[in-house]
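Weekly sync, protein design subgroup
Attendees: M.S., D.O., the rotation student, P.L. (late)

Item 1: inverse folding check
M.S. brought a backbone from last month's batch and wanted to see whether the design step gives back something sensible before we order anything. D.O. pointed out we never logged the input encoding, so this time it goes straight into the notes. Structure tokens as presented (196 positions):
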């Protein structure tokens, strides 16, 4: 009988130890999972930001040959033009007066200046005569990346990006918001100070 009780106690003690070990493992797994999730989210944000650094350079390059866009005053930018990509596609540009503001429409259609960077989409800029306003629209990028850039949270002042975030979807990942300062960081420029 003593042997049976002793074995029974040892068995219960073993089950208790096993249960404690399992509980500890589950707690560690839960903590590791939340840390892992945070690391994955941080890593995805960094990937999206790195993409935006490249995107900004190549998107800017798509507009380099537009004549009207580079006129020295907003009034002189009125009109429309279209250019062919060096590799494929077209970029259509139009600026017109709409009420007391100007509306700039840019449409990329399978537009490629550099292998690996194909742009499709529309960007709208609605701004007053001094160049303050808001962007909207989105641009899909294919080739080196499969991504979409959303412009609906970007504001401009004096014709330059001045606030908000770019929405970025890389592949099948969810949209992440990248602060507007990436525009200046990509070009190696200081972020303009805001006059309050």
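Designed sequence read out in the meeting:
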């Amino acid at each position: 009988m003593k042997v049976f009780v002793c074995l029974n106690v040892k068995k219960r003690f073993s089950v208790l130890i096993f249960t404690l070990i399992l509980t500890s493992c589950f707690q560690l797994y839960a903590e590791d999972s939340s840390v892992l999730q945070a690391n994955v989210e941080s890593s995805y944000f960094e990937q999206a930001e790195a993409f935006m650094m490249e995107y900004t350079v190549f998107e800017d390059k798509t507009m380099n040959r537009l004549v009207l866009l580079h006129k020295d005053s907003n009034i002189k930018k009125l009109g429309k033009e279209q250019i062919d990509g060096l590799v494929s596609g077209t970029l259509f540009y139009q600026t017109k007066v709409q009420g007391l503001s100007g509306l700039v429409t840019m449409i990329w259609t399978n537009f490629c200046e550099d292998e690996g960077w194909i742009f499709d989409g529309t960007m709208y800029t609605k701004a007053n005569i001094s160049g303050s306003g808001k962007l909207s629209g989105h641009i899909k990028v294919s080739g080196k990346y499969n991504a979409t850039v959303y412009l609906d949270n970007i504001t401009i002042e004096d014709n330059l990006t001045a606030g908000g975030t770019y929405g970025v979807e890389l592949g099948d990942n969810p949209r992440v918001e990248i602060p507007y300062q990436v525009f200046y960081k990509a070009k190696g420029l200081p972020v303009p100070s805001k006059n309050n």
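Discussion: The longest helix spans residues 2-62. The first strand starts at residue 79 and ends at 84.
Action: P.L. to compare against the previous round before Friday.
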